[in-house]
Amino acid sequence: MHAPIRMRRAVLAVLSAGILVTAGCSREAGDSGGQGTEGTADADELLLQQAAAQGPDPFTRSTVEPAGAAPATPRTAPPRTPAPGDEGPRTLPGSTPGLYGGTRSVAACDVGQQIRFLAADPAREKAFAQAAGVDRAGVPEFLRGLTPVVLRADTRVGSHGFRAGSATAFQSVLQAGTAVLVDDRGLPRVRCACGNPLSRPAGGGAAHGGRGEPWAGYDPARTVVVAPAAKAVTDLVIVDADHNSWVERPVGDEGARDRTPEVPPPYAPGTDITGPLPDAPPAKTKEPKAPQKPTPSHSTPGRGDCPTPGEPTPPGEAVAATEGPTGAPTNCPTPTGAPSDGATDGYPEPFPGLPTDEPTGTPADPDEPPGLVPPMTDEPQTAIELPWQEGDSVGISEPVEG
Q: Which stretches make up the DUF6777 domain (predicted)?
């Protein structure tokens, strides 16, 4: 009777050992995906992920382009002391200039390679589509519409891994310098080091604690959460860390169309975005121009610009009509009987017979009746002597003594 008992115990021991081996392999599989330290992640735990680490349960191999992924820069600002009740991450819209960085004209991730990795494994592609919220057939188009950039602050996100043929979910903090793909609202959607889909983090609590090794400069009070921009954007203003300059990168572009923004942000590229940022100046608007009075033509004066004959001229307008300041008429007809300045403008000369600018010495027409000016001839003129006697008066009146 003792033999069957011993055999039963041996079978149970073998089965127990098999279970332990299976459990150990499962953990090792997870550890191999997480580079041997992180294992698998639970949905409710916070995982600290360094920029270069692949992390647990990767969807694909890394697609990071080292030339386009700027390294994490050490913080130069002093640690921020959070106010009571303000210990959580700071929320910034995805359109914030300087929220992301990169290298000008170089992509941080290889989007084409990411598409090929997923297409080679239908199960992973299907799980990726479910976690990203798109159709499986639309995965390539979804990825091509994203923009490769680099995080410039430690960022809270919702992460997804691939395990046992389906997607897993967990919360994580990604280190500044992590290469990601963002959408047209500025939200991180894919982590390029592992191909894992990203989403907005669950909850808004502080990023204290968590599993993983903190990196130098990590401060839970200075992490950020990216909120979707108010509306879809066409360009992202990022920081070129190599030249400490601003770069405007079109959404969905991998750096080929990078350019310098026409209007730079109101702060320097190296500004710590986890601290207070100055507001952007208001957009300039064109002020409507005041309507200008049309200038009257010199050939045909307007009826409303010249005084009507017979009306008294208001004080000050007579000078304006003759001197011709800006906007004043300069060709109004001269009323009959008033002195003329010689510009007739089609009107008859008021005083015919007055001296003209004809050259002197012109022979006079003997048939022309004498006018006000004696005719000009070439013969010497004889002085006319008028006899007068002393005592005669010539238009001079002597004062009469009273």
A: 90-252
